[in-house]
């Protein structure tokens, strides 16, 4: 009897403690034992389609730009509004990345790489990777030759389609990865391996959310529901990636790959026993770069194609500008300064269909004040640039697709300070120079020769949002003009 009473008392204390919010914690939905606000959020997913949208609606409901949540037993805060977002992306207190089961699982069970590490490891390895990628030519003008090579492959695919409806999402994703991989590993990835890896990354992005899914909150669920929790997707994806990465590291070690790529530079440091230069860290960085390049450029271009299909008047203007200014000259990144309407169109694609509506999650490294609330140390912080890009205080008719909003009265490109498709500050996307010129050159190179059309109703531009925002699958006809 006494034991029974003791259990009841412990349960009551647990119930009370797990539902009580820390002092001055930001407003948000009620907390329940075990689940926190997880259930409240999940129940709304069917109505709003994504966790990002549910949280965005909740922040309006609670009239707050700092939404306080608890997912399972983890404190999570979602941050909105220009001032708060700037605070997170510029202040050092928010430089941390969360450490969770899902993020470790993504990196083969370890806290390695660049994207989801922080502190000395991140401060050492982000600059090292950038320096050695650049030494190999990454981000330099010579990289345009690689983009041109991939453009001509893509144009061949379009030629061979003979005007039949096709999807070029996978060939575009493969083109971007092959460019990046040349600087990382000095070689191409075999096509069948790359296709398999891309299928897994897309499935993973749809199966998870940045705040973590069931697997993140209750990792033991993987033993009972390995499919439903998404565990098997990650396991298969890791296997496919490890196969690609370990194979190239092995070939670097036995000198089958020549050149001054990133893996060679890293191995030199490793052989000199330099602290933190381990093979696990090398695999982690390669994995981060592969994942970052996998569904990003292809999603932006697919959204661009969808919007051109939905707005034939915009397509006509972009094509007219390209033929008037470029004729049939091969496009280069420098041309983005002359093709103002086309550049404004691409900026509007990034704004209207932001592929990272939450930036990479942050972790508060100390207790931090925001809007008079207290964000306790260790809290995961989600930064909603997707909402900032739709904020009516900065964007006139934010739900309308209007490339003109990025052109000022003098006819020059106007990029405002509330526009962060690549993030900002110390964590800003290091792939931005490649991503921007790749997307611009591929789009212009295709529209220089083809009109994009579809039979019947154009595809929806409504994104499918998980870890990233992805366009729906669609096909279109690329009809030769020149
Ligand atoms: C259109 C394409 C791309 C977009 C829109 C994009 C956007 C972003 C965003 C929003 C972040 C998060 C920044 C933050 O957490 O504050 C990020 C991080 C990152 N991106 Fe990209 N990205 C793109 C392509 C690429 C490519 C091609 C690479 C490969 C070289 C890359 C490498 C990375 C890495 C390594 C990080 C983590 C940086 C860190 O945590 O220090 N990205 N990207």
Based on the structure given, which CATH architecture is correct?
Answer: Orthogonal Bundle
CATH class category? Mainly Alpha
Q: How many strands in all?
A: 10
Please identify which CATH superfamily we are dealing with. Cytochrome P450
Q: In this structure, how is the largest beta sheet organized?
A: 4 strands, mixed
Enumerate the spans where pLDDT stays under 50 for 5 or more consecutive residues. Answer: none
Percentage of residues in DSSP E strands:
5-15%
User: How many separate domains?
Assistant: 1
- CATH fold type: Cytochrome p450
Helix content: 40-55%
State the separation between the terminal residues, measured CA to CA. 87 Å
H and E string = HHHEEHHHHHHHHHHHHHHEEEEHHEEEE
Task: Report the radius of gyration as a whole number of Å.
Answer: 24 Å
Number of helical elements = 19
Based on secondary structure, the structural category is alpha+beta
Bound molecules: protoporphyrin IX containing FE
Query: How are strands sequenced across the largest beta sheet?
Result: 1-2-6-3
Report mean pLDDT, rounded to a whole number: 92
Any idea what the shape is?
Answer: globular
List keywords for this structure.
19 helices, Cytochrome p450, binds protoporphyrin IX containing FE, two-stranded antiparallel sheet, four-stranded mixed sheet
